[in-house]
Design a protein that fits this description.
Helices cover 42% and strands 12% of the residues. By secondary structure, the chain is an alpha/beta fold. It has three domains: 6-79; 92-292, Rossmann fold (3-Layer(aba) Sandwich), CATH 3.40.50; 314-368, Orthogonal Bundle (Arc Repressor Mutant, subunit A). The chain has a nine-stranded mixed β-sheet, with helices on both faces. α6 packs parallel to α7 and α13 (314-323) packs across α14 (331-338). It is globular.
Length: 369
Amino acid sequence: MIAISGWAKLVRHARPSPQHHPPHRRPRTFRSLLQHFGDAGAALERLPDLARRGGAARPGRICSEDSARAELDAAAKIGVSLVVPDEAGYPPRLATLDDAPPLLGIRGAPDLLMRSMIAIVGSRNASGAGLKFAATIARDLGDAGFVVISGLARGIDQAAHRASMASGTVAVLAGGHDRIYPPEHEDLLAALLEAGGAISEMPLGHVPRARDFPRRNRLISGAALGVVVVEAAHRSGSLITARIAAEQGREVFAVPGSPLDPRAAGTNDLIKQGATLVTEASDVINAVEPIMERPIMLGAREDNGEPLDFEADSSDRARIVNLLGPSPVSLDDLIRMSDASPAIVRAVLLELELAGRLERHGGGLVSLI
């Protein structure tokens, strides 16, 4: 069991309850606070004051240590271990992300999560040909030594999981480990856990909602060397996963389909946009083998490791807030236009984030909520 200290203590206390999971509580927030204060206890003591500075009407709820320990005990009862980056069982490529979950719930074989993974995703309303291909490529990738990771959804996801059970497959959950979606895949999860694993960043009791699936998708792609999209209509969740994968620097693969089938429209577009065309497992293996030979490095951090400056005067804070609006703006532009130091700008943004007033976007952009 992880002690209520360091990363674990901060996350268990600061992460909201299943009934209240505001979008402003981001993994970057936890990392920035720990990096600045150096100690989880000191960071927790400053949370109410920082949120007040950001304009929060009232301080956020910080759960007690007893509540945190109770959740740890409940997790242990169903076989869930809680791990932080760099601990055994935390997927190493996932740990390189700027928004890697500071605490991850894992079930199954932790050694499996340390191996090279390939994600396979696609349509929930998949065609027979799509299901067959997903199963074939998943099986072949498993036979080649890769772990297949997917989202436990209907259609392509479940076909990939079932075909790779013998070699090891990982399910990424959108809800807590005790709130499986879709419910009819509880048996599938139980079966794949015999030789595979499951991960979730959500607390126990959290029922997945629509906005949780894109969050889950970033874990699917982030833990993998690359993402294979088998079938995807326009504006599908699988295309979100592909976009996130590209932003994360992961390889994006797409299986071509008939131009008459709307379920292939998204994958065909991905190929037009530069995704690697896939017709067999060797297409994926040949593309990722060079990546596997490189050491896993931590990605570039938005804060560059510099300390924050929470002693900004009121004029600096007002000037930075006035520059923000509903349209996303980059951190570099805020620094230039506010004529404030990077440390002050990042500190004010963190205060706004803790107050629930800031939204972070891809590419380092931020906006007011």
